[in-house]
Prior knowledge:
The complex is a heterodimer. Chain A is an alpha/beta fold. In chain A, 30% of the residues lie in helices and 23% in strands. Chain A has three domains: 4-131, Ubiquitin Conjugating Enzyme; 151-303, no CATH class; 313-466 and 500-532, NAD(P)-binding Rossmann-like Domain (Rossmann fold), CATH 3.40.50.720.
Amino acid sequence: MVKPFAVAAKAVEAWITDAGRPFATRVESVPGSSKPMAWKFKVSHPRLLHDTAKLSLPRDFPATPAQIYLHKDHCLVLPHVEETGKVCLGVEATPDDYANPVQAIGRVLSAFEHFLTQCNDEDWIASELRRECWSYWMRFCDKVASRRNARPTPKHLYVAIRGLTTIEEGSLAIYLVGTGRQKVKAVVACHGDTDPHSLARRHGISDGQLARGTALFVPLPIGQDWRPGVWPQDFEDLDMLVGQLSDNAVSVISWLQQFADKPRQLFLVAFVQGQFVYAYQLCPPLVQRLTPPAIEPLPAIRLDAEWSLTRGYGSDEFASRQDKRVLVLGCGSLGSPVIELLARAGVGSIIIVDPDLFLPENCSRHVLGLSSAYQGKATRLAERLTREIPGVTVQGVSALASSWVSDRATPGMFDLVVDCTGESSVRALLSQYRHSAFQGTPIAHAWLEPFCAAAHVVLVGAADAWPMSDPADALVNAAEWPESTKHEIPACGAGFHPYGVADTWQAAGFAAERLLSALGRASGDSAIWSWVRSKAYFDALNVGARPRAIVPLAGSEQDSRMLSRGYDEVLNPNG
Amino acid sequence: MEMLQKLELSQEERARATARYEALGRHVAAKLDMADADAYVFVQGSMRTQTTVSPRGNQNFDLDIVVKLTGPKVHGITNPEPFFQAFGSALKGIHGAGEPTQKRRCWRLNYPGEPFYFDVTPALPDSRSMGLSVATDLRVRDPDTRWSPSNPEEFADWFCTIADKRFSFHRELREMLAKADTQVTPIPDTPVGIDDILRRGIQLMKLHRDNYYWNLSEERKDAKPISVILVTLAGHAYNNMVTHEQTAYSSPIEVLLELVDRMPRGIFTDGRSYCVSNPALTMENFADRWNSDRGLRAREFNTWHKQLVADLEALFSEEYSKKSEARIRSVFGQYGVDAWKASMPTSPLQGLLAAVPGQPRTNPTTVRPQGSKNTLA
């Protein structure tokens, strides 16, 4: 049985051996080697530094198209040439390539020809290099770092930026590991007053011996030409560029001289264009003032909230969300994923109140796990989110909603109060404290119905108060339920409702989406949102649930609908 | 046993009842234009012997009150009817008592809203002057015989003298408890507060009797053993045991079972007629009616007594902890269950719970918000 890849490779080999012989020669490999088949061929172009190229047949050809390699010196000179010399032509495999493998080679060669044609245009080359400059920067860093005389650079450089508009000084936290000749494991850089060491500690990247350093943050205008060939290659280039960008107000040399008494310190110049940071490490000369400092380009990754949580997309909405303060009561199977979603969405400040300890059986539908056993759900989730997610202040309180609300909450503290307890007593509590604790703040009640057959978010606007009669069962819920749907366990008043994490996290996603929209809305109007499974789901439960009008009659057990209802319309069904 | 204490009027209710009957005496005296001292009011029956049992359901305690009238106003009354009717009129208008209704020997005052009602029997002293053949302190109206002798106080004294006699294990128990105050000794297993075996036993019998007859025909109900016979028979049996077999018993339960077993011995019969004498007035036969009903009451007594013996043995042969609600209900009815529950250690809460204002005793007039329960998270 001959395999399809072998059939295709044989066909290509036969074609080149025959028709292609005058133009291409087989690159010999050691017999038995697993290297792919390749042929060298002549190519003549004024922009090329060498006149040969290579056609390589990947071992999984035609699932992966054939590849063209130029000499690796073309990397960072011509666009789309990788550090290995591989030319990224953007040719995709097609199903037809199995039947016509030679035509597949033809498509690759056509694309290469087109590439070479475009390379005649200097502007095209520049604009392509600019367009993908971040990936070239990485290659640039690698290339520079592989020089024989390269200075040691940190393994990871993390940068936090927020609202950088002018050239600003910042500070570095440097983490050294090893004994004797230490290596820099990580560097965290922040501008302004932000302390990089606190940030590193918060996110668990502060491993090693701490050293301090200083940084200069330089914003690059979006229109600034920034690409291989334009990037500073040495300290003079860099100093000149900074001078030019600051109308000669800032000189890196002068800046460095302030720290002449700390020659061994690490210095960094970080250019920021759009969402991306292009940093240079400045290495002071061995003999002061004899030679200029050496520079090493560094690939930096941002860990601030704007990048980590949005990649810079939709930043206005995100910035407003960063200012929001939310109180969440209840950190269970609904509360914990809702809180996680709010935090990852960038809500700036979250206080979680829940008195419960995390127990092993909570693993089934909580965002925490066994390492939190016997610890407070609220405090553990707060710790975890603080460590994992930047730009959000999460505080966990192991307390009953009642005592916290009564003792701590005051009007104006929050932009939104979210009740994820599902408890009637908490709804009554919040109604009672509507004015003394939450005047002017919308309150959202989120809950699930038994078997997660439906989920509801009731947004009680600042002008309304949830009725003390608590009409959740009677007016909001999608069904009438039998007396007890709880699965009893041999413990007082305990038990659980049999639904799974996939059920509750759907509901959490549903709820969080609406809570975020409520946070973003200028009007504080009340609303009721529901996610309701179809009647087939209720019927399949076979527990005697009586679905109401909002339950869709059509659809399978897997189908559901989401709907919005007017608050007054639901609470006053008779007008 | 503890549960039986719950069958009595509470202290507070007892105090209210006492206040009520003192007011009643003053009222009657005023109405009949007599000095207060000439209308002497006292209780007889179960309240006097401390063996009250609340009847089943929502019925109230039956308190027997005697108003003994003396002085010039009543001296020489010979015709009972005008006297009885005049007394009835005098009972009208007592605050809170309601309208009096006429009974065979007494007037009933319902006291709406109170957990008890009064059967008020007017009595005159000096029975000899009325030509009765025996000397008693009192005479009361009887529709059949015009006047009937009565000596409730002597009967009660007889009973109480017996009931206050104690078996020796009582003393041991008390001594053990006293010692427990000063040194660490094991607390006795036997439930405490079971001093009053005779009174508690009689309550138990009455409760059992009331429950036993609850669903039976009216005819059988009418023929059920009357309380005074139970009190008399139990009193005789207890007196015999406590006098002659002081150390033969090791627990109150044993005493009770033996006591119940012996009760029929107090019925004197020659096979055709029956006699249970009033121990304080031997010519009075409490079982008089047994002799004119073709044996119905005698049969009822035997049937019920057999059932009582069987039920008590079944109940007390079980471990205390196994005494289930169902078991007690089958023997003593719901009221027994309630009393048993009230005797449980949770009872201290009862007073607090009762103090909560606005507890709905009947259907509430407005909808009370109950919250929602099908809201989970």
